[in-house]
Amino acid sequence: MPNLIDIVEVAEALESRAVYLASDRCVVVRNRHASCAKCADACPSGAVFAANNVLELDPEQCVACGACTTVCPVEALIPLRPLDEDLASSVAESVVATGGAAVFACARIASKRTADPTMFTEVPCLARMEESVLLGLAARGVDDLLLVDGTCATCKFRANVPGIDATVASANDLMAAMGSDVRVERSSAFPDELLLEDKRTLLGESRRGFFTSARTRAKDAAGKTAEVMVFKHDDAAPSLRERLRMSDSGTLPQFNPQRRMLVLDAMDRLGAPVVPEIDTRLFGSVSIDTDACSSCNMCTVFCPTGALRKSELVPEEGEGSFLEFSVADCVQCNLCADACLKNCLTVNSVVSTDELFDFEPRLIHLPNPPARPGILSSLKR
Q1: Where is the 4Fe-4S ferredoxin-type domain (predicted)?
Q2: How many other C-beta atoms lie within 10 A of the C-beta of residue 89?
Q3: What DSSP element (H or E) covers 318?
Q4: 174 shares its domain with 116
Q5: 71-84 pLDDT, tens per residue?
Q6: For 307-357, how does the pLDDT look when each residue is reduced to its tens digit (9 = 90+)?
Q7: If you placed Cys at 71, which of 38, 63, 92, 256 could pair as Cys (CB 3.0 to 4.6 Å)?
Q8: What's the gap between Cα 258 and its chain centre?
Q9: What is the pLDDT of residue 367?
Q10: Distance CA 221, CA 55 (A)
Q11: Distance between CA atoms of 26 and 22, rounded to whole angstroms?
């Protein structure tokens, strides 16, 4: 049974940690040849390291901006401040307060205390914003989406600006592809209707908000501490090696990133696609040079989501085999291409919208594996 000191230590660690690492999801951990470095590239402080089967985050260097969690294709980095659930709850309340608009503000401009905190959702940095939140709001009828920053050019998070722009462009492209007129806008100032006339009102709200937030954090910390302590003292808790053990089907464990599924659901709610294809960072399309392919199936072994998998269908001619590919499950992590022994597989960011919403996977015909010369045949040479 954990003692009080153990519980306090874990609670403090959780309170200080901004990102949880689900290492068994990371493609770099799954395969040392993985080229993905999106989290490390996005981190403005150099706190994230992903290479050589290792995913690490230095909590001392982490600035809690959330940029790494937004770009990770397999959700190996999970934001804790705020959690996705807390972010959704906060924006739901602010949408009611504004009468239908969803306004997100970075901590820097929120700290100026010029706007009513009940009418916007605060995030550490706008780099924390990602497509599933924005499209989810649009799909639920919110047609006014605004991201308010605090003059990024002079901010310590200014290296995140290209990433924020990419998220906004990505969300807008996906909504446009579904025929929606909703667009995410950016501004460096709050709308007039959110501004406070009397700052004493803000002081009162902030004070009440502080104590409410403190109680919430204490309750959450207690719950998380209990969960962590149970796991910490559970001798049966699986190690990373055990969690990455091959399945009976001959693949590493697979999963469906929740955010991608939420994006797909939101797009479906928005309507039918109005364009034949879309260039996106969220989903991918695979092509294989079947003449060069040796049918080793390494791509299916390492695919983290099962987007590429062996098919049980047999070609009518009896020659070769099939792979099944699902665009909706591909997260463009590029691990299949990195694992390919013949370098004959490529991942493309342009996907067919028809294929994206097709429940039937695309069949890719592979040739029979090349015959290997036996010992006797080699001796005859």
Answers
A1: 53-82, 284-313, 321-350
A2: 13
A3: none
A4: yes
A5: 999 999 999 989 99
A6: 999 998 988 777 889 999 999 999 999 999 999 999 999 999 999 999 999
A7: 38
A8: 8
A9: 82
A10: 25
A11: 7
